[in-house]
Amino acid sequence: MSEIDFDGPDPIYVQLSAVLERRIKDGTYPPNRKIPPEAGLREEFGVARNTVRAAIKVLTDRGMLRPVVGRGVFVLPWAVEGTGPEKD
Q1: What does the angle CA 22 – CA 26 – CA 11 come to, to the nearest 5 degrees?
Q2: Is the four-CA dihedral 28, 8, 56, 63 of positive or negative sign?
Q3: How many CA atoms lie within 13 A of 79 on its CB side?
Q4: 18-36 in b/e burial notation, b at 16+ Cβ within 10 A?
Q5: Contact in structure between 49 and 57 (CB atoms under 8 Å)
Q6: How do residues 27-70 score in pLDDT, each as one tens digit?
Q7: Are 1 and 40 in contact (CB under 8 A)?
Q8: Model pTM greater than 0.85?
């Protein structure tokens, strides 16, 4: 839980999204693979369900993650720095 500063000026969901983004970029969460489930992230970081969902939404809106109903949340291939989606 040391990666989250509960007394810091930034909202917790913003801090959590930054941690998840770092893990995506450093390969901890590789492209086309699932990130840990919501319950696992809640337990690891000691945060509420809504906090995890808000952090995932930030990265989904940025095109780094893709939730798949019933399967989990996947890292998109172009989420890793230096790559991008195919353009026509």
Answers
A1: 5
A2: negative
A3: 29
A4: bbbbebbeeeebeeeeebb
A5: no
A6: 999 999 999 999 999 999 999 999 999 999 999 999 999 999 99
A7: no
A8: yes
